[in-house]
Specification:
- There is one protein chain.
- The chain is mainly α and about 200 residues long.
- It has a single domain, classed as dinb family like domain (Four Helix Bundle (Hemerythrin (Met), subunit A)).
- The chain has 6 helices and 4 strands, in the order ββαααααββα.
- The chain has helices at about 40-60, 65-70, 80-100, 115-120, 125-150, 165-195, and strands at about 1-5, 10, 155-160, 165.
- The protein has a two-stranded antiparallel ribbon. The chain has a two-stranded antiparallel sheet with strand order 3-4.
- Helix 1 (about 40-60) packs parallel to helix 6 and helix 3 (about 80-100) runs antiparallel to helix 6.
- The longest helix has 27 residues, at about 165-195.
- The protein is globular.
- The mean pLDDT is about 95.
Length: about 200
């Protein structure tokens, strides 16, 4: 169902899958982000918050087709949900492979010559969507493996300019990166089909 905004443009009606709170994505008892795990120390807290934000981005993309995922719904921005998945694959890859592990790992979707590649290449093609999901999932698996195998949160990686960064700071940065983009995803998803997110 659609309505018209102040400019007369057709917009979807707002809706939610929650039966308890009208401003929630799902009912609290059905929210897969809440595992009930006790966050008893710094490592567990950082890992769980990052896990929950990764899952939030996945949820924001649920039940959408390739065209919807690629929709740039906040003109003139080039941002789309598909672009966010591609961007975050590059972000995960850059921080965990290049900075922390010291690997030679070029970006998957962007480059120094095309810094907007993750966004500009996010087109509504099922093959492009499948490639983005696979890349993002592979990079998350690598990141999770690196963190699991690195006992000390003081482990140091080095940025391209040589400055050091500790794993604990990187995990906080990744939480911030996902949280910011999940806010974008809330708005983009609501503009696509009206589904409200918290």
């Amino acid at each position: 169902m659609t309505s018209r905004d102040q400019s007369g443009e057709s917009v979807p009606e707002r809706w939610t899958a929650s039966t308890v709170f009208p401003d929630m994505w799902v009912d609290p008892d059905n929210d897969p982000r809440d595992t009930g795990v006790e966050l008893s120390d710094e490592r567990a807290t950082l890992i769980d918050y990052l896990r929950a934000y990764r899952l939030t981005l996945r949820l924001k993309c649920a039940d959408l087709d390739a065209g919807q995922l690629a929709l740039r719904s906040v003109p003139p921005s080039t941002m789309s949900l598909l672009g966010l998945i591609r961007h975050m694959a590059d972000v995960e890859r850059s921080w965990f492979r290049r900075v922390m592990a010291g690997e030679d790992a070029p970006r998957l979707f962007s480059s120094d010559d095309d810094r907007e590649g993750a966004w500009n290449g996010a087109v509504g093609d099922p093959g492009v969507v499948a490639q983005a999901w696979t890349a993002w999932e592979d990079e998350i698996a690598n990141s999770e493996r690196f963190v699991a195998e690195t006992a000390d949160l003081n482990t140091v990686g080095h940025m391209a300019d040589g400055r050091p960064i500790r794993l604990r700071e990187l995990l906080v940065h990744m939480i911030e990166e996902y949280a910011r983009h999940c806010g974008h995803a809330d708005l983009i998803r609501e503009r696509i089909d009206g589904r409200v997110g918290q």
